[in-house]
Amino acid sequence: MKQHPGMVGRLATLRLLAQRxxxxxxxxxxxxxxxxxxxxxxxxxxxxxxxxxxxxxxxQVLSRPAxxxxxxxxxxxxxxxxxxxxxxxxxxxxxxxHWQTVARELDxxxxxxxxxxxYSPDPDSxxxxxxxxxxxxxxxxxSMLISAGAREGVRKGQAVxxxxxxxxxxxxxxxxxxxxxxxxxINSHIPVIIEGTRAKAILSGDNSDRPRxxxxxxxxxxxxxxxxxxxxxxxxxxxxxPVGVIASIQDGIVRVEPFVHRYQLEYVTVVDYGxxxxxxxxxxxxxx
Length: 288
Known about the structure:
Blueprint: H1 5-39, H2 41-117, E1 126-134, E2 143-146, E3 159-162, E4 165-173, E5 178-182, E6 189-194, E7 200-204, E8 212-214, E9 227-230, E10 242-250, E11 253-258, E12 267-272
Antiparallel strand pairs: 1-2, 1-12, 2-5, 3-4, 3-12, 4-5, 6-7, 6-9, 7-8, 9-10, 10-11
Helix pairs in contact: 1-2
């Protein structure tokens, strides 16, 4: 059935007018919504909440497959991580078992050699834990106060450690407190050795954060990163106490980075190794 040409033209005109009025209606509706949101926020908020409430069940349904897939992926990753961790722990356990066997053999050999040499072991050490209660140092003095004194058994010259690392020695003792002379103080001089080369030196503080190695042989082959430990000479400290590592070598001056810095000290341990020390404990205190 053929349509009349005039009717086709009218239909096209009506369609064009409908499209134009639809666009205009959408623009007016947008402005109306904006004005309504400015005028009455409570109504807009309630309308938004109604829309959110209507959409939330759909979103929950759509999110479940995604959550399930994410859970499966995480489970696969966790399983892979557990397998890798299991392999690492198995290898570490094997290494520890090997070193346990070596340690037992060395212990037995050490006991046998001590028996043949009639070795006299070092006396048992006694220790006192104390809290750092004050930093009495400054630009010219590096020392700290601790909350233990003579009544707790603290004596002048005893070693002060944090963990296993040497931080200084007891310089002054009161009844309820004591003062630590830190390794970095200008009056601190500790006999040490370079752990790798066994070269001897004196760790001398100069009130900087990094004390220097004095009296070190030019043929010591010192290198940055070498560990520094106490030598045990002079009877002040036992040998092998960790002190720090060589941080720099410049113009013949070897600087040591201590394992523990003064600003890190909260609790320390005062240790009595039963050694005579450089000075007898009953000598008068003429400074540090």
